[in-house]
Amino acid sequence: MSLPTPAVDADSTESVPRARRGRPRGSTRGRILDIAQELFIEQGYEKTSLREIAERLGTTKAALYHHFQRKEDIILELHLRLHALGRDALDELAALQDGQEQVAAWPGLIDQFIDSVVEHQALFLLHQRNRNAFERILDNDRHRAENDDLEQRLRGLFTNPGIPLAQRVRMVCSVGAVMGPLVGADHLFADVPPAELAEIVRGAAHDVLGG
Amino acid sequence: MSLPTPAVDADSTESVPRARRGRPRGSTRGRILDIAQELFIEQGYEKTSLREIAERLGTTKAALYHHFQRKEDIILELHLRLHALGRDALDELAALQDGQEQVAAWPGLIDQFIDSVVEHQALFLLHQRNRNAFERILDNDRHRAENDDLEQRLRGLFTNPGIPLAQRVRMVCSVGAVMGPLVGADHLFADVPPAELAEIVRGAAHDVLGG
DNA sequence: GTCTATATAGGGATAGAC
DNA sequence: GTCTATCCCTATATAGAC
To answer: Other CB atoms closer than 10 Å to residue B62's CB: what's the count?
Structure first.
């Protein structure tokens, strides 16, 4: 039931005592990423200037360029964090042969997905609110090959003729049903214990699939 | 079962023969809005320059300023189109007294909502992909009072203690379940007849509510 | 690793002729 | 209603000292 906890921290220099804010990141590079994530969620990627990021970090624009060559590279790294979350689940799914088995595995994957969304809510929110920016780096960057086939695999699943259309649509519905309360709704259920909220969402998602 | 078809066309000069592209808009102002909507969906509001809009329209930047005082006013008008879609449904909901009745009315509203999303898919997509920009004009603009209480009413419904939490969460889930296949998924089910797709989604949304 | 200073480009917006 | 020309500002990004 527990998530694989992928190698999200591969970037930061891990020789630093880990006691900063929410996430364990002491390195300047990690703090830049955290601040950027916040601002990109609040204002959007395009509307957030490097000056703002630097200001909140207590430094200057030029200093940022020592850690990231281009502004794009910041959101790219955030993108990789998100993809790391989905990789294991998708690998698991790809191991199954035909559509029938994949459909059978879906409810279990949704459970994992819910846990993942609860744990890394901000990352999913970032993606949802900056979808255009995320898509733009797909064209530009060399990391394309190793990454976007992930989305290809998902597309392949949802368009697989071996699975009845109604079943495929409901699979997408289940994802939407999860994202709605956990990501989309601003802080509508902020006062509800995450575990309780997750349990309700779990039930709803399963009802979508079982109908 | 049919939607109210709100006064979305209130802006355009309707003395012009209506035979342009998808939507019936001959006026320059209307065409600007259509082009802007496309580009804002493809690239995002911030990343789309007035020069691009003018180019695609076959004119110049300055000409746009004859129709809209500021760039912001373009997305504001698009915003109003969207709000017009939700107003009648929300009014209907507000007429009901207690939570029990509102919960009972929800499945019917979801049906209306699905029809609305199918018919005005682009408008919902625009909103989903430019949420930050839409939120920004709420602060800036004088149209605040008459508009954003709509969202307040929705918030009020979803946080109403008179309705059990599980029921409220599932209501939000149902919205997500609808948005998932109809708006979020890029063109995953583009080859499926809209009516057939809507029917499947309808079933899924009701299963979320009835569980 | 961080600073000041600067290059360069493109954005929104306005003036005023036609 | 549309054009050309221009103003002003802010953005990304770079150079080079410390």
So the answer is: 9
Q: Are B177 and A176 in contact (CB under 8 A)?
A: yes
CB B82 within 8 A of CB B123: yes
- Report the gap between the CA of B133 and the closest CA in chain A (Å): 8
Bases of chain D below 7 A from a protein C-beta are 1-5, 10-16
Residue A104 structure tokens: 């059978």
How far is Cα A194 from Cα B143, in angstroms, rounded to an integer?
36
Q: How far apart are CA A75 and CA A31, in angstroms?
A: 14
Give the DSSP per-residue string, B138-167.
HHH-TTHHHHTHHHHHHHHHHT-TTS-HHH
Asked if A175 is an interface residue toward chain B (Cβ–Cβ < 8 A), one would say yes
B8: nearest Cα among B76, B113, B73, B84:
B84
Mutual orientation of helices B194-210 and B165-179 as an angle, nearest 10°? 170
DSSP codes of every residue in A154-201: HHHHHT-TTS-HHHHHHHHHHHHHHHIIIIISSSTTTTS-HHHHHHHH
| Cα gap B130→B43, rounded to integer Å | 10
Share of chain A above pLDDT 70, in %: 84
Average of pLDDT values for B169-178? 98
pLDDT tens readout for residues B103-120: 999 999 999 999 999 999
Compute the average pLDDT of residues B34-41: 98
Cβ–Cβ below 8 Å for A43 and B175: no
First-last CA distance in chain B: 24
3-state secondary structure at position A109: helix
The pTM (predicted TM-score) of the whole model is 0.90
